[in-house]
Write a structure and sequence with these properties.
The protein is mainly α and about 120 residues long. The chain has one domain. Helix content is about 75%, strand content about 0%. The protein contains 4 helices and no strands. The protein is flat, with a radius of gyration of 16 Å.
Length: about 120
């Protein structure tokens, strides 16, 4: 299998998570915007996310198990969310967040083992 078969789904999942995080949480900086407008904007952004996530999972399914794909998705989601929280929302992350994320990463380690 070419290396891109392993890397392309990861890159696409990373990009899709950026769009989904923006769709779900980006509006929190614009609380004066009416909710209906926020929902429409989020649906438009989420469409781009789906255009990336669905093929990423389809193509990734040729080299990864479904459990591995879901685990990658969750780890990527946490990484994107953590960066988004700090950079865009200006929220700090504490030691408890780091411990929680590390435990999830540990779980991901076990998912990828073939014991």
């Amino acid at each position: 299998m070419p290396v891109s078969a392993y890397l392309l789904p990861i890159g696409m999942l990373l990009a899709s998570n950026v769009f989904m995080t923006l769709a779900w949480y980006g509006h929190l900086r614009f609380k004066e915007t009416p909710l209906f407008g926020v929902i429409l904007a989020a649906w438009g952004i989420a469409f781009v996310e789906y255009c990336l996530a669905v093929p990423a999972n389809r193509w990734g399914g040729t080299v990864y198990t479904t459990a591995q794909l879901k685990t990658m998705q969750e780890v990527i989601t946490l990484l994107v969310f953590a960066g988004f929280s700090v950079v865009y929302l200006k929220e700090s992350l504490g030691w408890n967040h780091a411990v929680g994320f590390a435990l999830i990463a540990l779980g991901a380690f076990f998912i990828f083992q073939k014991w």
